[in-house]
Write a structure and sequence with these properties.
- By secondary structure, the chain is α/β, with parallel strands linked by helices.
- The chain folds into three domains: 235 residues, 2-enoyl-CoA Hydratase, Chain A, domain 1 (Alpha-Beta Complex); 90 residues, no CATH class; 58 residues, OB fold (Dihydrolipoamide Acetyltransferase, E2P) (Beta Barrel).
- The protein contains 16 helices and 16 strands.
- The strands form four sheets. The chain has a six-stranded parallel β-sheet, sandwiched between helices.
- α4 runs parallel beside α6.
Length: 488
């Protein structure tokens, strides 16, 4: 009996032991769960909308505890303020950022080079280029007589040693003024600092600003400007896996992207709206629409639709211009020019106000966007078209004003003189007539009768002086003498 019990216990233990691996195998290993890598795409000029999109994407990635963020770039450049905001967000990101210049044929010029240098991991697709980081604003700096001239290309320095910054005299033309030199020095130092932080080629970063040089994807890899070349996202994630990067707090972190899949993050409605109104052409038209709307509301008050629409458009336009680092002297010239054009129609000045207003409007429109960054200028054709429309508007208003001066008076006391009406009734003390559907007291030096047509010859307060225009005597009705009455 004891032997049978022992055999049963051993069999039960053996059965439990054999089932444990099967139960354990039902639970997938933690490493087998693929992580999701957010994918942000920037295509076109870098502006406030792109900066807002990247900031929100990085914040969402941090909240989701993502292991990596891929930033796909294809840009000709952009605004300095937006670029620096993006760089700040990348440096402060709690998630490693991999900048990838893609697809083939894309570029990361000017502002794009700063973003690539600031990223924890830098990669490019075959057939792309990077560089030309010279600030384009220096072409419009007041007082500069010419553009900075690139210096002859210097031979490549050793890979492990960064050269000292070049003297400005070698790279900036002698005609460049102090402001131009400051902008070049500042931009070069900024890109060099990013290169030193990420351990990339400092010398080439300096040349990219001072000489405006560019590199292909393979050349950038050879020059240690980027970390590797990746043809697609899978290659990017595979080559980024295991790399150790330095985060903003100084901590070292290994990138874990093995087996990860990307998820595209689309811009939300706020970013889309911001992208529309910060388009320089749209911001310019919003400003003009606001000015016209308020003008029409003040000159012809009604239901308030022009005023409401104009006020909203004006505020949106000013907000967009503030985001675009607009020149408010240009905005003031636009308003002044419009005011002078309107004044020309009201106060004839033999064309002086009209010509001055047109000049102020055109100059203000040109000065409005204070940057030469690609994609952020107002087309000269649009400025010329709006200027012509303004002049035509003033001419039309001026012609209507002249035509209105020749028309007879249709209201007021002056319009009553010479008007004719019909006597309604005559009493011993008063006489009443109908004039323009109104009932007036009248007096006359001639006898009056009900139904008689009279003409207004004068006015004293609310009493009209009239004279008969035709006498139609009524049988049995005695003619009255002169009447006097007070008005109604």
């Amino acid at each position: 009996m004891k032997q049978s019990l022992s055999v049963a216990i051993m069999g039960l233990a053996l059965l439990v032991a054999t089932q444990e691996p099967a139960v354990a195998s039902d639970k997938p290993p933690q490493a087998a769960v693929a992580s999701i890598v957010p994918l942000l795409t920037v295509s076109g000029p870098i502006g406030p909308a792109a900066a807002d999109y990247i900031a929100r994407g990085l914040q969402k990635a941090g909240n989701d505890r993502a292991t990596l963020v891929v930033l796909q770039i294809d840009t000709p450049g952009g605004l300095d303020s937006s670029t620096r905001q993006i760089v700040k967000d990348i440096l402060a990101s709690t998630v490693p950022v991999a900048a990838w210049v893609a697809p083939s044929g894309a570029r990361a010029a000017s502002a794009g080079a700063y973003i690539v240098y600031a990223s924890h991991v830098a990669a490019m697709a075959p057939g792309t280029n990077l560089g030309a980081a010279t600030p384009v604003q220096i072409g419009g700096v007041p007082g500069s007589s010419q553009q900075p001239q690139p210096a002859p290309a210097s031979p490549a320095v050793s890979q492990g040693k960064a050269s000292e910054p070049k003297d400005a005299a070698e790279t900036v033309g002698s005609g460049a003024d102090a402001m131009t030199r400051k902008i070049v020095h500042d931009s070069a130092a900024y890109l060099r600092s990013l290169a030193q932080m990420r351990g990339r080629n400092v010398d080439w970063a300096d040349r990219a600003v001072r000489e405006g040089v560019s590199l292909s994807a393979q050349e950038a890899h050879t020059e240690r400007v980027i970390d590797f070349v990746a043809a697609d996202v899978d290659q990017l994630l595979a080559q980024a896996h295991g790399r150790t990067v330095q985060m903003g707090d100084g901590a070292q972190r290994a990138v874990d992207s093995r087996g990860a899949s990307t998820a595209l993050i689309e811009p939300d409605w706020r970013t889309r709206v911001l992208g529309i109104i910060t388009e320089p052409t749209v911001a310019y038209l919003l400003l003009l629409l606001g000015i016209y709307g308020i003008y029409f509301e003040l000159t012809s008050p009604g239901f308030g639709v022009p005023g409401v629409a104009g006020s909203i458009s004006l505020l949106l336009g000013m907000f967009a211009l503030q985001m675009l680092s607009a020149n408010y002297a240009g905005a003031a010239l636009i308003v002044l020019g419009f005011a002078m054009l309107v004044a020309e129609a009201v106060v004839p000045s033999f064309g002086a106000l009209g010509i001055g207003g047109t000049i102020a409007f055109v100059v203000g429109s040109i000065m409005l966007i204070d940057t030469e960054a690609p994609g952020f200028g107002i087309p000269t054709g649009l400025i010329a078209t709006v200027a012509v429309v303004n002049v035509l508007f003033v001419l039309v208003v001026f012609r209507l004003a002249l035509r209105a001066r020749k028309r007879p008076v249709v209201s007021g006391s002056e319009e009553l003189m010479g008007a004719s009406g019909e006597i309604l009734e005559v009493t011993a003390d008063d006489a009443w007539m109908r004039l323009h559907s109104e009932r007036w007291r009248v007096r006359s030096n001639s006898p009056l009768h009900a139904g008689q047509r009279v003409q207004v010859t004068g006015r004293e307060g609310l009493v009209l002086q009239v004279e008969p225009t035709g006498i139609a005597p009524v049988e049995g009705e005695a003619a009255s003498g002169p009447l006097g009455a007070s008005g109604s």
